[in-house]
Amino acid sequence: MQAMLVRLKEKLLSSSDIPSCDIDKLIDELVTEDLLTLYNEGQLKSDKTRKHFFKQKFNFVEPKQIYLGTDTADKERFCQYVPVKETLASLFRQTSVREQYNQSKMLDSVDKVMEDIKDGTCSTQNAIFHEHPSSLSIMLYQDAFEVVNPLGSGKKKHKILAVYMTLDTEQIQQEIKRVLPELDGNKLQDVVNHLCFVVGVQKTQDLALVEVTDLQDFLFPIQCRKLLMDFKQRASRGQVDETPIEITFTPLPPHDSLYEQPSTSYTPSSSDWLSMFQIPWERMPAALLHAASNKEKAPLGPRREFVRNVVAAMRELCPNPNLADCGEVAKQIFSKHSLTFGDFSEEGEQLGKGYSSLQRQLKNRVEHVNRDSVVHRIRQPQKNTAEEELNSCTVKKVRCKVDSYGCINWQPTSMPDGETTESLEMKRNVLLEKFQYGGPNSTDLSDVDNLMQETYIYQRQMINACPPPAISDIEVEWPYLFTKRGLCNHFETLTGIDISSRLSECLIGKSKRIVDYFQKQTLKWNADVQALLKEIEATPATNNKTAISAILLTMKYFKEKENSLFILVDETSTKMSIETEQTLPATPRLIMLGDKLLTSAKWMVSIEGKVTHCIGQELDFAAALSALFGCFYVFNIEYQESASATLELIQRFFVRINPEGTKCAAKYGTSRKTGSTVKRKIENVNPHVHTFLQSLTEFEWKTSN
């Protein structure tokens, strides 16, 4: 740099008449104002400080990243978008831009002379420009260019696309003109432009939120006060037009009034003989009396003997008590000796009503003693066959207890403090914007968790609507519910259970117990279970093998098909290819990616024929099962009958949700023995599940002693 200045000075002295003092002064100016020197000092010395300077001084509008989805290789794709509204606002902060805009509106077209694009047919015949003369006239265009490649933009895949939009300011202009008719056209347009493009006013109702500081640079103080007073008075009288919100918040009826359909639990019997019946406590075996006095579990032999004695006493008053009658008797026994006769999990949690197994044991004894008496077994004939019932099914018009089964916060009835329908809608839009820019990975942001928690009542309002909304509609409005984290957080608020932690803690230990239960009694099981045990033994150990094995073994035990809960696809499959190539069922399925179910290491969840949740490859089978199971509760989905026993086992044994009744309300199902359609017995606790858990406990007790 110094050598260049020396040569410049020599050239000026030899070839010009400029006095040497002026040349020296010029050289000194170049030295002190050297751009290269300034560039490496002060605010421009680093990339970070330069960007900060540009944002401050040049009205920089930062691009936003928008999530586009996944490509055919299942890789997330994004694009960079420079917001149009912020760009226009940045432009209209410049006085020269506002002046040019005002001048363009004031110029009259010369007849038969085309001076600008506004003189063309598309502009002169445009209805918007006639109705709203102050509208921004924007020309859409795109142009691709390359800044470093001399071969042109065709050699690269990145192009720049500029998109603009038309904003309507006519109505706002009329509001201001009505209050301040003395404003000239230029001043009025300046005020409107500033309100629309700088302050952010988009509709007339926003005018009530304008403050004095927003107008003081354009109007006199008294004019500002006149405007603000008028805006607020009209808003308080409801004279300002409002744009309706797309999703309105209509409080649901009280929780109890939702249950217009029959519950899956039993109605107490009204049989007259029950009022006269007395439990024969004096006929309790000695071992059972000892267990009851010590509040211990009833031994199996003495319990069966007492059941026979109770049924004998019942049949003296009623030859054939029905299931509800047996339930009333079991309830009386349970109320006196709950710890001896009750149904409890190994964690001490009551299963359902607590006396379902005793009720079923009493009923089984009744049917056994009446097996040779045709008269005592006659029941009312069925009104409809199974096929007629299935054909008569219609979309339910009211919610029932199955929807809120196992939930403690199914439909909140009061708004969070300080929230309104409008504020919740604004937060929903913020969530949509965050998901649009960040995609599923943005669910890890702490403010997303807070916003989802604050809008929980709004989410339930849509999900609990009747008729139920399609899953695809819920995904459009609440995309974070279709991420594993968002779904599990919602499940925790809904049920009070952190399903991710619960399954992570329980699945490994309890799965090993189930696998041991089957492996140590190989010859006891049918051919399907034995074949699966051989496959498990031949499969190399993985982190997920034990958990997957346990679920598959219980499905074989319950004689439920694997495809009623799982779908196996190639490990290279993507969301797009699965939806294209597979016929996905309406009820939830866990899609297992791999050569076989036992070795799968990637998972997805499908509902209503679409892939809804993609489980990250870094997560394990417990996380995948959490997402699958959570969908039934979050989206009010009943267990499919074809996998109802396995799902109830997961519910009661692993997740430990133990309410009364069942989440499978199907009246008809497929017989596991014959394959034909049969009428299902609606039980408080699935008897197959209860028997399995009881057998597992007894086996472990025997083998441990």
Number of distinct helices: 29
Query: What is the 3D shape?
Result: elongated
Compute the gyration radius: what is it? 37 Å
End-to-end distance: 93 Å
Quaternary assembly: single chain
Helix percent reads 40-55%
Please outline the major beta sheet. Answer: 4 strands, mixed
- Helix/strand/pairing class, anyone? alpha+beta
Widest β-sheet, arrangement of strands: 5-6-7-8
Residue-averaged pLDDT: 80
Give structural notes.
This protein has helices at 2-15, 20-32, 35-39, 47-57, 84-92, 95-106, 121-124, 127-131, 170-179, 185-199, 221-236, 286-293, 300-317, 323-336, 338-341, 356-369, 386-391, 421-438, 446-454, 456-463, 471-477, 484-495, 499-519, 527-538, 545-557, 575-581, 621-634, 644-655, 687-704; strands spanning 64-70, 76-81, 141-142, 161-162, 566-569, 589-593, 602-607, 610-615, 668-670, 677-679. The protein folds into four domains: 2-57, no CATH class; 64-243, no CATH class; 272-372 and 385-391, no CATH class; 499-704, no CATH class. The strands form four sheets. The chain has a four-stranded mixed β-sheet with strand order 5-6-7-8, sandwiched between helices. It has a two-stranded antiparallel sheet with strand order 1-2. Strands 3-4 form a two-stranded antiparallel ribbon. With 705 residues, it is of the alpha+beta class. The relative contact order is 0.06. Helix 13 crosses helix 16 (356-369), helix 22 packs across helix 27 (621-634) and helix 24 packs antiparallel against helix 25 (545-557).
